[in-house]
Amino acid sequence: GNGQSQALPEEMKSPRRRAREFALQGLYQWHLSGNDLPAIEAHLAAAAGFEKVDRALFDLLLRGAIAEAAELQALIEPQLDRPYAELSPVERAILLLATFELKRHVEAPYKVVINEAIELAKSYGGTDGHKYVNGVLDKLAVLMRPEEAARPARARSSNIPEEKRASSLSFAPIRRRRRTSTRSTTSPTGGSMRSSPSSSAA
User: Fold this and answer.
1) Of the candidates 35, 42, 102, 176, which lies 20 to 30 Å from 24 by C-alpha distance?
2) pTM over 0.85
3) Cα separation, 151 vs 125, whole angstroms
4) Is 88 within 8 Å of 126 (Cβ atoms)?
5) What is the CA radius of gyration of the chain?
């Protein structure tokens, strides 16, 4: 398909998908406002739908990505075709989350981590942002999970948890046209996040 199918209805999202979405929103707020973690968590916990998240995964991703942000940025930067600061706040947050998950949440197969990041980029990022995220994470997965990435696809597939198995995504070209704006519509929690249609996964 063209990667622009309808967004998954709220009631069909898995607790893990919700955890990643809320962790992304928390990282986005942290990037833009510099609020401390307790304030961000309190804001998110008051949002509709938060009671349905996988709380353990949410805590791991948000707290871990913020705590290790400088180290994660150092892993991401060599894979970029532009300065890290020129990425949109949404793309920075998605790459931090997914890189942290590749590093620390080893129970999640790397293809699931990448696919979930792509879905977040389709929901909240700019046009074609998901292709950029995909290209960067493909390279990071080979570096960070070399044994898993080298395994035949058939051997990996039995590992996939409740998230829908990621389809085999071709390597996307890194370069894309720039956007004029990265902040237009509002996120579910009221922060300003760019939005475009999402396709369904988990």
Assistant:
1) 176
2) no
3) 31
4) yes
5) 16
